[in-house]
Write a structure and sequence with these properties.
Radius of gyration: 29 Å
Strand content: under 5%
Oligomer: single chain
Low-confidence stretches: 1-63, 244-250, 434-454
CATH class of the largest domain: Mainly Alpha
CATH superfamily of the largest domain: MFS general substrate transporter like domains
Distance between the termini: 45 Å
């Protein structure tokens, strides 16, 4: 209508003048249409972007998460079974406890170098490496099942330790990858499966031994369970093929050193917690029997109480993803180390069990949270492998540390000294308060800032 009025008003003018308003109107309409089209295009882009964001932040496909939990459970079931088989293994090998203890050190000796190597190889192909290392552990268990002599047992345990250590690193790397893809926390749930399997498998193994099953038959069942656990990994492992070629082989140039440094720093914090955890596994039963006067049945419940508390706290924190890692560190330092010291110095077995429960509740979420933090800071997954390897060193340090301390003091006093592991945890919490993002390598920090700007 505006064009018609202008044409009517401009009849006395030239044709060009009469046409000019029409062209302007048409241009305005065109511009308006263009703006409308731009708006629609913008909305389409926003919709597409929203779909893209939803694609990234929607829950991960069930198969990877399910596969990770199943592998963690099968892995924990083997170690729970093995701990319950040790008396029968000792009898079959016709060895002394000291000789068997020396042979058992082959497990961490084999694990440490394998963890470092697997961490580098697994970058970009996490699920494939997890599948391979799980299958390799199953084959190692088959080998272990048929050996009775101490020499052969040491070699088999070295292979089992190497494959188990590699599985540990690859499981953490694959979980970190799944967290980044899904945008949802997974470490707490995956790590909760391990202690549940341990405390379930140990008494079942005892029942199997009472029913007359041989060591070989029990271990072959464990190997079959591990082989079965890799089936859900076949789909995710196939997807790793293209992604592995696209991803770099880890941090490059100066970022490699930065990633290693921060991974080692985070690993030391995890190691502080694992020093205490290993002491619970190795010494708690002896503590309750020898120093608290507990019966064998009550004393044997100590590791189960601790691991049950680990599982509960991890499942609770899985539902509370907004908890800050600094707060979990303080909780571990105060509640974890304090509860352990209480358990060591308590006057009765029941109070000691309560202390182990408090310690497990406080320690439970820390290690998964540290690994998740490392995975968020380094998309290559290399930092996660460093954290896993360095923290595993606690399983070498803890027995030597407690054993050395018992040369100078009683077992309760030696165990209570481990409460000093709280000092690094509290120091890291204070450092995180002063400098947020302390665990993030410089290269990844700048990259994440660039992504946030975009």
């Amino acid at each position: 209508m505006w064009t018609a009025r202008r044409r009517g008003d401009g009849r006395a003018g030239s044709g060009a003048q009469r046409c000019l308003p029409a062209r302007r109107g048409h241009g305005a309409a065109r511009r308006g249409g263009g703006q409308r089209r731009a708006v629609h295009s913008h909305h389409r882009r926003r919709s597409t972007d929203s779909v893209g964001v939803n694609r990234v932040t929607k829950p991960a496909p069930k198969s990877p998460r399910f596969a990770l939990v199943v592998v963690s459970g099968a892995w924990g079931a083997f170690w729970g079974t093995w701990s319950a088989l040790l008396p029968a293994v000792l009898e079959r090998a016709d060895a002394t406890p000291g000789e068997l203890g020396l042979v058992l050190t082959a497990v961490p000796v084999g694990a440490m170098p394998a963890m470092g190597l697997a961490g580098r190889i697994a970058v970009g192909r996490e699920h494939r490496m997890l599948l391979l290392t799980t299958a390799a552990l199953a084959l190692g268990i088959v080998t272990l099942s048929g050996i009775s002599g101490l020499g052969g047992l040491g070699i088999a345990l070295f292979l089992v330790g190497a494959t188990s250590g590699a599985l540990d690193v690859c499981l953490n790397a694959a979980t970190a990858r799944a967290e980044r893809v899904s945008g949802r926390p997974l470490f707490q749930a995956v790590h909760a499966a391990f202690p549940v399997a341990v405390i379930t498998a140990a008494p079942l193994t005892g029942l199997a031994r009472q029913s007359g099953m041989s060591i070989r038959a029990v271990l072959l069942l464990c190997a079959a369970a591990l082989l079965g656990s890799v089936l859900p990994l076949l789909g995710p492992a196939a997807k790793d093929h293209a992604r592995g070629r696209a991803d770099p082989g880890g941090p490059a140039g100066p970022h490699w050193r930065s990633a290693w440094f921060w991974g080692a720093a985070i690993g030391v914090l995890g190691g502080c917690m694992l020093v205490v955890e290993n002491a619970v596994e190795q010494w708690s039963v002896l503590l309750l029997e020898e120093d608290k006067g507990a019966s064998a049945v009550l004393a044997s419940a100590a590791p189960a109480v601790y691991m049950s508390a680990l599982t509960v706290s991890r499942l609770v924190v899985q539902r509370l993803p907004r908890l800050r890692i600094r707060d979990l560190g303080v909780l571990a330092a105060v509640g974890g180390c304090g509860g352990f010291a209480w358990a060591a110095m308590a006057s009765t077995a029941e109070l000691s069990l309560a202390g182990f429960a408090v310690s497990g509740l406080a320690f439970g979420p820390l290690m998964p949270a540290l690994l998740s933090h490392a995975g968020q800071q380094d998309a290559s997954g290399y930092t996660v492998s460093v954290v896993s390897t360095v923290s595993y060193g606690a399983f070498l340090v803890s027995p030597l540390l407690v054993g050395s301390l018992t040369n100078w003091m009683s077992l309760p006093s030696a165990l209570s000294c481990l409460a000093f592991m709280a000092v690094p945890l509290l120091g890291a919490a204070v450092g995180a308060r002063v400098r947020p993002g302390w665990g993030q390598p410089h290269g990844q920090r700048e990259a994440s800032r660039g992504e946030s700007r975009r």
